[in-house]
């Protein structure tokens, strides 16, 4: 676990952090969406449930993204977790603006994403203190 310093490795560390965020975001949403769509197809679930499934996918993905992207760092877990979930927050807000889904779902998604980032930062900082 490395600490961010003002040395020459900072740029490489931040690029690696950005790549981890991008890859974990893409793969987690892709894999969870594929699994959930397979389950919906095989169980012939009503399509009115998709809003709930989408909310669950966003929340679980944000937990995974925060966990994976902050694995190489020693400190500042809250800031790094919040930065790592920014792409999924932007994705959620843009999706809301385009599709005009219910306001309750956007509030639940945003709160769930931020709470998952907070939970991961608390988990990481509690491991550090041991």
Could you name the key traits of this structure?
single chain, 130 residues, 0% strand, mainly alpha, elongated
Count of helical regions: 5
Order of SSEs = HHHHH
Could you give the count of β-strands?
0
Low-confidence regions: none
Shape: elongated
Q: Can you give the mean pLDDT?
A: 84
Q: State the separation between the terminal residues, measured CA to CA.
A: 15 Å
Helix content: over 70%
Secondary structure class reads mainly alpha
Main β sheet profile: none
Radius of gyration, taken over Cα atoms and rounded to an integer in Å: 16 Å
Name the beta content range: under 5%
Structure explained in plain terms:
- This protein has helices spanning 9-43, 50-69, 77-84, 86-99, 103-129.
- It is mainly alpha-helical and 130 residues long.
- The model has no long low-confidence stretch (mean pLDDT 84).
Map the helices and strands.
Elements: H1 9-43, H2 50-69, H3 77-84, H4 86-99, H5 103-129
Helix pairs in contact: 1-2, 2-3, 2-5, 3-5, 4-5
């Amino acid at each position: 676990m490395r600490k961010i310093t003002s040395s020459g490795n900072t740029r490489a560390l931040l690029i690696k952090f950005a790549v981890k965020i991008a890859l974990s975001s893409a793969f987690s949403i892709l894999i969870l969406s594929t699994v959930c769509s397979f389950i919906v197809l095989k169980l012939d679930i009503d399509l009115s449930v998709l809003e709930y499934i989408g909310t669950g996918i966003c929340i679980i993905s944000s937990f995974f993204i925060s966990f994976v992207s902050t694995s190489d760092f020693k400190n500042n877990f809250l800031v790094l977790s919040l930065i790592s979930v920014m792409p999924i927050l932007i994705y959620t807000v843009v999706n809301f603006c385009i599709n005009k889904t219910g306001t309750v779902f956007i509030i639940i998604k945003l709160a769930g994403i931020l709470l998952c980032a907070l939970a991961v930062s608390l988990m990481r900082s509690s491991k550090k203190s041991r």
